[in-house]
Amino acid sequence: MVYSRIAGTGSFLPEKVLTNADLEKMVDTSDAWIQERTGIRERRIVADGETTTDLAAGALENALAAAGRSASDLDLIIVATCTPDSLFPSTAVRLQRRFGISTLPGLDLNAACSGFIYGLSIADNMIRAGSNRCIAVIGAERMSTILDWNDRGTCVLFGDGAGAVILEAAETQGVISTHIHADGKHEDLLYHDMAQNAVIMQGNEVFKVAVRTLERIVDQTLDANGLEKTAVDWLIPHQANLRIMLATARRLGLAEDRVIVTVDTHGNTSAASIPLALDHGVRSGAIQRGETLLMESFGAGFTWGSALVKY
Ligand code: UT7
Questions:
Q1: Phi and psi for 155 in degrees, rounded to 5?
Q2: What pTM did the predictor assign?
Q3: What is the predicted pLDDT for the residue at 21?
Q4: How many angstroms separate the alpha carbon of residue 171 from the centre of ligand 1?
Q5: Which helix (H) or strand (E) is 164 found in, with range?
Q6: Would the CB of 241 count as within 6 Å of ligand 1?
Q7: Dihedral sign, CA of 162, 289, 309, 69?
Q8: Domain covering 3-170 in this structure, CATH number
């Protein structure tokens, strides 16, 4: 029996910090409102000319180092992003060139904020099927390039960054199960308008569906594995809103200090948010080998999903 396991994690953030105080000078908002409603204090924003590929490359380099691997060990690159540098060639192929590796397949995947969980699910299934042995799954976003910076309802929420994992074939279980879903009927509640190049969101409506859907996916994930809530050591949620994250933790009966939180300093980095949070949890020493991690996401589409992983 072949399983997949996370051999290493990495992340990369742009240097430029945009604080809530900075945003107070740009739109009619306040640090108090943003913190109270979202938990966000600051976020990172790309510099002029800094690309999604740059962010993804930084995260991949750090993940490879953590896994003790080189780029030539990879047999597939999956980049989850809804903000690629161009529609084609893909970010994955740009990375291939950047790392001087050729012939291995690479693809970009767009499932909005659920992109990383979708990528992890595909990679896990390919390794279990025996077709691949070492896959980079990266979430990389420049959300700052698709925001209307005059819309206080959205521009305060998002940030830029990238996170990555190296997923390897293993004889013992790493990824326990993944669960991915989509339902297009709510597309109007959260979408990118191409003509305006802006994120359009009815935040309050998205919030309600997100909380309900994430409760269901948590239950589904545990039921699929015949596990009790107490089996989960760490919740690594999509980092959109601290209130949503803590609602899921309450559902699991998990204490707040078992939730990896980066939304305060990263904002919502869409597909990058979970691998960024995972890497933060690992590098801070909180997450230990052998612990059980529950990752969950909810995003535009709507798309949602989860991954239960023995780290
Ligand atoms: O990652 C993909 C999935 N996305 C999500 O999960 C996001 C889900 N939604 C949310 O996180 C929350 O709905 C928001 C943080 C976006 C908004 O929080 P809320 O508590 O739902 O606020 P609201 O939209 O109901 O707005 C409340 C008030 C409104 O004013 P009135 O109508 O009560 O006078 C808004 O106009 O807050 C106002 N408002 C703001 N005030 C200050 C909206 N944005 C701002 C702002 N600063 N930036």
A1: -70, -20
A2: 0.98
A3: 98
A4: 46
A5: strand 160-170
A6: yes
A7: positive
A8: 3.40.47.10
Rounded to the nearest 5°, which phi and psi values hold at 271?
Answer: -65, -15
pLDDT value at residue 231 = 97
- Report whether residue 111 contacts ligand 1, using a CB cutoff of 6 Å: no
Pocket test for ligand 1, best of 204, 273, 302 (most atoms within 8 A of CB): 204
CATH superfamily to which 175-310 belongs: Thiolase/Chalcone synthase (3.40.47.10)
Which residue intervals of the chain bear CATH 3.40.47.10? 3-170, 175-310
Q: Write down the catalytic residue from 62, 82, 113, 132.
A: 113
DSSP 3-state of 201: strand
Q: What are the pLDDT digits (tens) for 246-278?
A: 999 999 999 999 999 999 999 999 999 999 999
Per residue in 160-186, pLDDT tens?
999 999 999 999 999 999 999 999 999
Q: Ligand 1 within 6 A of 240 CB?
A: yes
Q: Is the distance from the beta carbon of residue 262 to the nearest atom of ligand 1 less than 6 Å?
A: no
